Amino acid sequence: MVTVVGIRFKKAGKIYYFDPGDFKIAVGDGCVVETARGVEFGEIVIGPKKVKEEEIVPPLKQVLRTATPDDYHRLEENKDRAAEAFRIALRKIDEHELPMKLLHSEYTLDNNKLIFYFSAEGRVDFRELVKDLAAIFRLRIELRQIGVRDEAKMIGGLGSCGRALCCTTFMGDFEPVSIRMAKNQNLSLNPAKISGACGRLMCCLRFEAQMYEDNKQRFGKSASAQGPVVADEFYHELEGETDYYSDLLQEDTIQEVDYQMMLETIKVEESTKVDEDAKAQSSLKKARGKKRRRPRRKRKKNPKSK
């Protein structure tokens, strides 16, 4: 068993394990650690505890020191400097006419590296941009391209429920979400209804997915005759039509995210139909096997044959 502490570097960010050493630290304390990006400031979210060595990704780095007032002061100064660097980088991106969307910038605590986060549809050749930024700031420049889910997590916003996005409030990692989860929960398969702010399937579809799977195994389809409960009858009627999703795939206005979602929906419906046909055939065979045969009539013995 190894004693570790859980440290988070961003709000609702991933938790990393570090060796607390001889420091007396508790949840909520600030600390300074060395990471692959450099010396960074983090917050203790999991107090000292013992875990198995299999749960640790080696090498386990040690906490350098507990945060001092100077560290907090430098952290605030770096935020102001990062905001100014963000404006300069935006101007340079416009000068180079690069197809990228700048999202965030930050300094490491030791001021040895400046990191920019951006999103783009494809790969971007930003070598000239890095040269210009390095000449201006006189330190190491790192540009990181992130996906649409990480973009929504970084920017924030409100979901269709009216509350702040789950990824920006408490979700540390993104877990895979499939269209089958929405189908098992009897939700409308319209992309506009089950997509989040990032354009992908909503992360909250996974929160109750296991409960629906357990109930399905325990109770089966007890209310299958009633059909799915859909709040919007208009979309429910459209989705009930033949070749509804196949027709949508032929539209030019559909986005790429929705296109992939439609493909998954069609595959789920086809597999579901195949399963239902197989079950119907098996039940038909059982019914035929259980069909009673008529008893044979006993032949009367001929008295002359005696």
3D structure, described in words:
Helix 2 links the parallel strand 7 (113-119) and strand 8 (140-145). The longest helix is centred in the last third of the chain and has 35 residues, at 256-290. Residues 223-240 have low confidence and may be disordered. The strands form two sheets. The protein has a five-stranded antiparallel β-sheet with strand order 2-1-4-3-5, with no helix packed on it. The termini are far apart. The chain has 306 residues and is α+β, with helices and mostly antiparallel strands. It has ten helices and eight strands.
Largest sheet: 5 strands, antiparallel
Strands side by side in the biggest sheet = 2-1-4-3-5
Helix-residue proportion: 25-40%
Find the structural class using helix and strand composition: alpha+beta
The count of DSSP E runs of length 2 or more, i.e. the number of strands, is: 8
Shape descriptor reads extended
Amino- and carboxy-terminal Cα gap:
94 Å
Q: What is the H/E order?
A: EEEEEHEEHEHHHHHHHH
Q: Whole-number radius of gyration? A: 30 Å
Into which percentage range does the β-strand content fall?
15-25%
Q: Which residues form runs of ≥5 with pLDDT under 50?
A: 223-240
What key phrases describe this protein's structure?
306 residues; alpha+beta; 5-stranded antiparallel beta sheet; 3-stranded mixed beta sheet; extended
Give a brief rundown of this model.
The chain has 306 residues and is α+β, with helices and mostly antiparallel strands. It is 39% helix and 18% strand. The strands form two sheets. A five-stranded antiparallel beta sheet has the order 2-1-4-3-5, with no helix packed on it.
